Amino acid sequence: MLNADISTLEQLVQDLRTLLKEGLVATDIWDRSTGLSLAGYNAQPAAVALFNQLTDEIGSTLGGAGFPSLGRYYLLELEGDNSVVILKHGADLLQGILLNAKKVNMGILFSIAIPKSLEGVAKSRS
After folding, report:
1. Which helix (H) or strand (E) holds 70?
2. pLDDT confidence tier of residue 126, bands split at 50, 70 and 90
3. With the C-alpha atoms ordered 52, 35, 121, 85, is the resulting torsion angle positive or negative?
4. Are 44 and 96 contacting, i.e. CB atoms less than 8 angstroms apart?
């Protein structure tokens, strides 16, 4: 059974909206086993399924090639001035953050938003 306080996750999403402003296009925090979004802004169900599969494939490919395992997150630059960050919150939760790369401050993303997300989900479990 999932061990996370949904209201804490929803507050985390609101905090990200405030912090990243127009740079935040969408975010979802989801249960990896069901693919269901627990909290989000501009929810992207197709992206949830895609990034569940992609994260698993990256992890197994890295392991098969003798590379270190995925850490807490990875970043993809996409066409159309978009970027996506996928955060691993343990084995059971993932979070996707879709960004407008022209509007987001990457320093704030890496120094504040990502650590705040990792910490916020950890707090939702206590």
Report:
1. none
2. confident
3. positive
4. yes
How large is the average pLDDT for residues 114-121? 96
Look at residues 53, 29, 26 and name the one whose alpha carbon lies nearest to residue 42. 26
Burial class (CB in 10 A: 0-12, 13-18, 19+), 65: exposed
Taken in order 68, 91, 109, 36, the sign of the CA dihedral is positive
Helix (H, G, I), strand (E, B) or coil at 31: strand
1 pLDDT above the threshold of 60: no
Residue type, 99: L
pTM comes to 0.94
DSSP label of 101: T
Tokens representing residue 101 in the block: 């790369």
Name the fold adopted by 6-124.
Beta-Lactamase (3.30.450)
